[in-house]
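User: I want to check something. If I give you two sequences, will you return the structure for each one separately, not as a complex?

Assistant: Yes, each is folded on its own. Here is the first sequence with its structure:
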Amino acid sequence: MNQETYKNPLRGPNERPQPWNVENFFRLGPDNDPPSVAQLPQEITLNGLSHLFSTPRIRRLSMMPSPIDRNLLGRFCRRICGGAKSRKSDTVSTPASTGQNQNTPWRRAANFRRIALVILITFQTLAASWSLTNTFPYPWLKGSEIAIIGMFAVLFSWISFGFWTAAAGFWMLLRRVKEFTIADLYSEPEDSRPLQSRTAVLMPICNENVARVFAGLEASYRSLAATSELRHFDFYVLSDTSDPETQVEEEVAWAQTCRAIRGFGKIFYRHRRNNIRQKSGNIADFLRRWGRNYDYMIVFDADSVMSGTTLVRLAGIMDLHPEAGIVQTAPTTVNCDSFFGRVQQFASRAYGPMLVAGLRFWQLGESYYWGHNAIIRIAPFVKYCGLARLPGKPPLGAEILSHDFVEAALMGRAGWDVWVVHDLAGSYEESPPTLADELKRDRRWCQGNLQHLRLVFGNGIRSGHRAIFSMGVMAYASALLWFIFLLLNTAEIALQSLLPPIYFSSEPSLFPIWPQWHPEWAIALLSTTAVLLFLPKFLSLLLIFRNREARLFGGPIALCTSIVAEIVVSTLLAPIRMWFHSKFVALTLMGMQIKWGPQCRTDNGTGWRESFRLHGFSTFLALAWIVGISWMNPASSVWLLPVATAILLSIPLSVYSSRASLGRAVKRWRLFLIPEEIASPQVIKNLQAGLMERQRQKWRPKGFVRAATDRYANLVHVGLLRGKIPKSEEARARNKNSLEKILKEGPASLTPAERAYLLRDAESMAALHHCVWHVSHSDSASEPAITQADQASAIKDHMPAVDRSPDAEAHWQSI
């Protein structure tokens, strides 16, 4: 770096002048890995204020939205009637135009497998629907019974798809099938081949837990530094945080993290004032500014962690396979403490590999992108994956919320492969700690997934991605269909109980037709459904035993007990999720929009009052439902009792399952253990150590008060503002009045808006810091007040006179 000398604008009067640049300010040692994108801009001074640059120099490029023609009938008519005069939007870039080969072997295999899947599901659904017709008492079908069969067919086909997906994954892992897997994408002889590319690791955040974000970033960075490929990677924290006080914590955490691991010039921080298009807009903003500097980007969530070896292997896959547009890992859930979190973590780890392998079996190169823990080729993403607004109003119109599925579909439409690698370890994430937090997340996901109804028939979308759109919708719509199915059955029970039986059909007959009940068909159908639902869990158990991994789950007895307990818990949770997902779908279709906020990632627990507010109405409804059915037909209530009982227990279940103490107890009993807890990877150890270190060093107070009182925090915050001050005289006068108010009455006297205005004013924050230190250290010789000619005479007329009253000094000395 350039070693020009600058004066420290906040240096004490007794401090000796010294070279002023980023290294000596943050007391860095020699930089063994010089910045590879651009020299990190140095801190400079302008009118007495420091400037600090946390991002590389901008090299802009254009990223335009890719239009999607959703009018299937219109395109068909234009193709038939217009021939060669079809609209330009009807055609999109093809593999031929992008240099890709459309007739790859995996495409032929995918077509054959998907046809086989459709045949299996159709046959199984027809057989189950025929069995259901035999349970009705009359040889003819009424309208309500036809509706029941129709709903059942849709729901059973969804269950059948899950079963055959699990079966395909079981076969792949049992036979250790290697076609189209990581063994093909990245073979061992080429494992040590040096990278030929540049990769940016992106972590978009918005009002997240700052300590967790930077602990995860530091763990991934340290793991990557242990390899020999760190020079090929840069890290970016892309903040959409709307709370200015949290932004201060992010800035200080960025500077401290870079200082701790020598990350200046490798770890960058960018705060975006205008939160346009949420996460997808944040990433698009990065691509427009710095995308041309990199070949690939690896997208993280705020809770993502990835080992250095995995980061390098992902980049190696992209180097070796130029036709790959997106490669998605299957992240492992870790670090869950609550009982609910531990159950979900265990289920994800025990069943997840088999299910992901099954999804990959059908999808192959037209697979999922889940929005994080994936690597993306930047050039085609910028060219083809810009998101256009959907016509209409929210929630089904306007900005695309669940952008990841759409971006994968656009990448596939342009001829690039999208792969999921189920057998690549070293990718981790966290899950919601409570049922309430999971439902809040699902409310957002439901709204985003239902938008995909409008994109299923978009022009050029490949069949695999159309199926992914449909499955995303069914993930939530199936709950509403189940709810309607229960309502139809309830109505049928009521009609049979309250109305007299029918003994003669509409056609003339000499003999009555007696209703005949066939409970054996109902029992057989219920048993078959249970097998389809629960057999995949035991297939996962067989795979674990076959691979001799039972000890990594706590031992054979603990593993079997955990699976049985997980089945019980998931059975209780299924009706609760059904109720809420049904409500979410209905509210979205009715036009009720929800604001997307940050996901809760800490084990705070659910209180009784919150649980009653969340589940009270559904509990009352379930009680009235089961009482009414028992009164009308006690025998039929037995079939509905499992659903009603689960909803009746939802309040205590939500409270007790959220408790971390219960989660730690089952961990001591060696239940719901996962291999990452028995033999923890080094990157997870680094994450936990980083979190513990940050918890020990928690600064109280935070945010605004920290920026005002702490010299280090003030330097970082004022430096990153880079001289920004209000332009209008009115705004300057407002901030000056706020300074006078805070110095007289203390920080609690300011409203959040007044604090936010001050935090965005470099002159005000520098002046406030000087005043606070002047007040609280005016009688202390050991800690001299900061000057640079008293911070340019307290920024000239900007700073009010210092109040030396005992009350004012008490306010700040107490801090």
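And separately, the second sequence with its own structure:
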Amino acid sequence: MIKLVSSKGRLPPHYSAFWSRFPQLLATRRINAKPKQKVKQRLLGILFRTMSSINQFGTIDITATIHGIAKICEHKGWPLLRGVVYDDNFKPKTQMFHRLAVASLPIITQFDTRHLSNISHAFALIDYVPVFDDGTSLFGHIAKCSLQKLESFTSQDISVMMAAFAKIKVSNSLLFSKVADLVVARDLLKRFYPRELSNLVWAYATAGEASPVLFKEVAKDMMRRDLNGFGPQALSDIVWAYAKAGKACPVLFDRIADSAIARHQQQFTTQGVANLLWAFAMHGGKVNVHLFQSFVPAIESKIGELNCKELANIAWAFTVVNVPAPSLFNDKVITALMEKENEFNTEELIQLHQWNLWSVLELDSGVCLPPSLQKRCLKAFVSNNLQPPSRIQDEVVNELFNIGLQLKEEARLPKSGYRLAALLHVNNEHVGIEVDDEGVNGKTSLKRRQVYVIDGVRIIFLYQKELSGLDNDHQKMQDHLCKKLGLWHATIENINKIIEDE
């Protein structure tokens, strides 16, 4: 047990050193977890004296104290710490952390880059954004100070800070933009260790700030590296980030697939496997059948360890790439799904509905969700498609009417449950119209395939990029739609051509 007082009964000279060391002892279990009242009282005493003198701390001590106490909060479920750093429900005591944030504010401009990144990491660990009386937030001040000191940031500082901002969902486009510009302009990527590099792209993708130039340069950098230096988690995080950000990079994905296949798949965590396969499915590139097949044994052996998100992501990924795996998707999977039937969120239920369509109506595998779960999945799937149409979708539908076509708006298909922006009959076939802003990816590919196979409807996707500039020109929009539908359109040019031919 760590000594809470010196041999003479005095407190350690540096409270920050105590709080910095304490999490390490917890991690190595060198501290008795049993709630001994005397020990607990000593901890409370040290915490009280720490908080009483916190305004006298310098930048190093206050950073170490905040980071150390935040790290302690990772050790949830320890009775020793209940009532000390977290409440009876093992939630961090935000009032205490708010006081620590207030104490750091007067000296925050003196923090160096390591302190700024560590303090942002600490508050991200406890998922808390302190907001001050003037309406500003601690993270806003951290961003402001960081922008003034960007030139001094190391690769570790950058990856830690950007991951913290992304994890805690603090939006700061200026900071993300300036950091990306710095990393690219100064050619800093070569200084990033593999884990730092994966954290960087994960942060940008998670925050919705995916810089095209940064992702392009990261891909180039990785093509020059030996991927054996990247751990399984780093590889899965990188492909997840590219897929999440919608950044297509087939060459990089091929290299990572080869590296993943060459490894022992048991090295990957369940989350790593789920993220990796989801990313390759979402990416929308050429299907790597070997990659998916190579992970089947590893998934089978860990089927009972998968959480809801991992189960749904893996099932959805195999559905998208259309790679049958009868040894995986069998009664054991159904049992695992049923054990968590009431724990799935809406997104996961939607994924399972699409998997069930694949298993039953595409593969005719004989394996299906039980009726109760099927019903919940269908309800989530149909409800999710009830979003109001966008302005550009309304304009597309109006122009289809103006052309003279008979169509059904917001049509729900009875067999699959999919909803289409418009359903019409053209050239002796049923055609669906979809307006999409994501571009080609696993979601659109899956919808195109399942609607065609199950409902017999061919979908024509109209992407926002191709429609930009046409929404204010009725003639050009109608011409474009007719071309996509394979229809002759009675434009002035076409009529003049007929007259000339006559």
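Because they were folded independently, the notes below concern the second chain alone. The longest helix spans residues 346-362. The chain has a mean pLDDT of 88.
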